Amino acid sequence: MTTFTVLFDACVLYPAPLRDFLLNLACSGIFRARWSNEIHDEWIRNLLISRPDLTAAQLQRTRELMNQAVPDSIVSGHLGIAKGLTLPDLDDAHVLAAAICSNAQVIVTFNLKDFPNDALQPHGIEAQHPDDFVRHLISLDWGAVCGAFKRQRASLKNPPQSAEELLHTLERQGLVISASELRPLLELL
Does 81 share its domain with 147? Predict the structure, then answer.
């Protein structure tokens, strides 16, 4: 098992296709994925606002399945140090605190401006856009990334999606360069 640890910010867990792809990647064993209950609360709260057709019970079930799929994913004991951290958006201090407590090397987030290098570098942490994160994984172990993609595709039953359709979905979720790097491997996906 790798010791390379990644903390997922709420914004990358909000869109279901991206969340599912990141979870399938986490299950590949090429990194350890972490998040906190506060991160769960944030993505669920935001999703319920934009998707009134969903219920809190449905998303609670998703939360439980995520925690089961990735053992030891929940970070705790971090809120005490959050108060001493300074970020452009103080509401994100709990995310950096969770990354510090989990010994994460990377925070995967769309909100790069909220996690400036000068605030993260003293803790040995880097913020990465999910597209950059997945591109790094492709260069590290493209076979594991293809396997994660295939697992996600196999789970899509209503409706099923072709590899090209799922790549297009992930492009719309912000994985533009990653999708273009995976497209030549279409027959493996």
Answer: no
CATH code of the domain in which 36 resides: 3.40.50.1010
| One domain, residues 91 and 72 | yes
> Do 127 and 104 form a contact (C-beta atoms < 8 A)?
no
At 1 the pLDDT is 58
Judged by phi (left if over 0) then psi (alpha if -120 to 50, else beta), residue 165 lies in: alpha
Question: Residue 142 half-sphere exposure, CB side, CA atoms within 13 Å?
Answer: 11
The helix-helix angle for 163-172 and 130-155 (nearest 10°) equals 140
The structure's pTM equals 0.95
Angstrom CA distances, 131 to 109, 118, 128, 160, stand at 10, 22, 8, 24
In the predicted structure, residue 2 carries a pLDDT above the cut 80: no
